[in-house]
Amino acid sequence: MHEPRATEPAQGQSRANPHPQIPAALAQQLFRKAEVPQEWGLTPERLAQALARSAAQRFRDAAASPADIAAYLSSLHLADLALACACSEGCEAAWELFVRNLRPELYRAARAIAGDSRGHELTDSIYAELYGLEERGGRRRSLLDYFHGRSKLSTWLRAVLAQRHVDELRRTRQTDSLDDPPDPDGSPRREPASADPPPDPEREQYLAMLQAALTEALAALAPRDRLRLSYYYVQELTLAQIGRLLGEHEATVSRKVERARREVRRHVDTALREKKRLSEAQLRLCYEYAQQEWPFDLTRALSTRE
Fold it and tell me: Are 28 and 185 in contact (CB under 8 A)?
């Protein structure tokens, strides 16, 4: 999943697909469904604006009937969309809820994406954009305005973090690839030997060991835990959808998915340290190589029948 971005119509593309008007009765119905806390001060009209943007994004390339739009809007994560709207408006009560419920999860996701040393920095780097420092037309523009409610807000934020990390890696590589200026005598400056290290000849071996340990760890899980992970990572279902399939509360699914992830990580770490005798530096290399380009297909490892 990639971060939603504001896009301009391509050349020759019509702008004749404006934000649809949300009927007042439908806007009120969805506002009630979102269960917006009164202290946020969020109005049905403000939420309707976000709903209209979401519908315009969803149906930008196709005509949609009022029934299609209503069905789509009813399928959104309305509580999360309302939270994003209230935070975008600068509501302190909404931001308190955001910080309390989402910031710890964001830090965990950032550490998984960028490592322990860069995780907090990666998360903090997007907070200014989420709050909105740039003003357009007298209104603060928040990154949260690009959240359309099609996924959970936490899922969308993880995608933003991942995209930010990828963008930073690309900028770093572009900077590193620029030619150095010549020496004063006019001769080209040589790259230091460490600037372009040769590929690690043991990379494939590290990845093979990691894959074997991961497959073993997944096989050791209870079938229902593997099923949850399969729904979440392979089929990319939301926690709510998984909960409906398994007859579990969304919070229960979230807790058990996180527990299974920790169990898999412990199993993999133990296998690589104790069975393969890898050092901490070698263990980090295994994960770094996997993060650079994930080479594993988890479909078979997570396939299970209850």
Answer: no
